[in-house]
Amino acid sequence: MKMTSLNVRACLCFIFLFFSKFSFASDSYFVYTKFQVVNLRVGPGKSYPISWVIKHKGEPLKVYHKVDNWLKCKDYNGDEGWAHLSNVTKRSPNVVIKSSDRGYVLLYARSDESSRKLFRVEGGRRIKLKKCDSAWCKVYVNNQDAWVLQEFVWGAN
């Protein structure tokens, strides 16, 4: 059966409208909770039940899917849920220090492993992010600026 020009246009229009409802971005990115309490749901809408509650303002969440104004994301521990766009921001106030084999991560005075070691930080601790480059992140902890290897930071875009 031959498709007419009208049928082709109708099919293309349907495909465009269907896929414009969903965002299938292959790149994941981080957002951060705006409020002290944020509900994450089992699906993308207020009609879905709450699966869990985040009780930390600035908690980093990794987004890997979007439907309308809802983001499917996971936290540092791998817990997943849907957050509404109004509850998150792209500003990165906090990051989580990843666990290392030693159970802690060293923070340095400069972005150089030969510089003075300032602190040991346990994995899972939330700290304030100032900036990152390709290998290092500048953080603020214990009332002091410090540098940490980016491989030990979870939540930096």
Instruction: Give the fraction of residues assigned to helices.
Output: 10-25%
Question: What characteristic shape results from the CA principal axes?
Answer: elongated
- Percent strand: over 45%
* Count of individual domains: 2
Indicate the radius of gyration in whole angstroms: 21 Å
Could you give the distance between the termini?
50 Å
Judged by helices, strands and strand pairing, the structural class is mainly beta
Overall mean pLDDT stands at 86
SSE run: HEEEEEEEEEEEEEEE
DSSP helical segment count: 1
- Low-pLDDT stretches are 10-25
CATH class of the largest domain: Mainly Beta
Based on DSSP secondary structure assignment, what is the total number of beta strands? 15
CATH superfamily label of the largest domain: SH3 Domains
Please give a structural write-up.
The chain folds into 2 domains: 23-89, SH3 Domains (SH3 type barrels, Roll), CATH 2.30.30; 94-154, SH3 Domains (SH3 type barrels, Roll). It is mostly beta strands and 157 residues long. Strands 1, 2, 5, 6, 7 and 8 form a 6-stranded antiparallel β-sheet that branches. A 5-stranded antiparallel β-sheet has the order 14-13-12-9-15, with no helix packed on it. 10% of the residues lie in helices and 46% in strands. Residues 10-25 have low confidence and may be disordered. It is built from 1 helix and 15 strands, in the order αβββββββββββββββ. It starts with a helix and ends with a strand.
